[in-house]
Amino acid sequence: MKVILYMAMSVNGMIAKSNNDTSWISKKEWDSYSLAVREAGCLIVGRRTYEILTRQAEFAELAGVKIVAVSSGDVPLVAPHHAIARSPQEALDLLSGFERVIVAGGGTLNASFLAENLVDEIYLDVEPIVIGNGIPLFRGKRFERNLRLIGQKGISKNEIQLHYEVSK
Question: Domain limits of the chain?
Fold first, then answer.
């Protein structure tokens, strides 16, 4: 199983504004992300990301995707094929039949997966915005991982996607 962290972020590494607003993320970026998730067939997110994602109109595009929300508490699930896990490893265990797994936030979940050395690759879609106060790509854990750039491409005139392999 290949574990891929896939995130949109501002130039300064924020994945949302402090009020959870992600309206600054472009449609082209969403289309790229949505395609990757649908091709993998599964997605792991944190509780807050799950709650935000399932309220967005675009969520309908992920109707057949198995989604696991990682949370220490209860999460009201919106579909019978969604599940709750208590840890990153438990989330991966629930998705053991998949070849690729997409992990997509929030910052605490991203940091947990990297701190536990569970990520193989990272896709970062960099949006042309600087956010002064927001939710960082990684937060709450101390870790360090070396990355190797294995690809880059333009998503649009102002957006770029960086593709890294995580050194293990």
Answer: 2-166
Listed residue (6, 1, 14, 2) closest to 161, CA to CA: 6
Cα 164 from Cα 168, distance rounded (Å): 12
The whole-number mean pLDDT for each consecutive block of 10 residues of the chain, a chain of 168 residues, reads 98 96 94 96 96 89 96 93 97 98 96 97 98 95 95 96 96
Dist. CA 76–CA 25, nearest whole Å: 26
CB 36 within 8 A of CB 29: no
pTM of the model: 0.95
Instruction: Determine contact, residues 45/70, Cβ cutoff 8 Å.
Output: yes
Q: Which CATH superfamily is domain 2-166 in?
A: Dihydrofolate Reductase, subunit A (3.40.430.10)
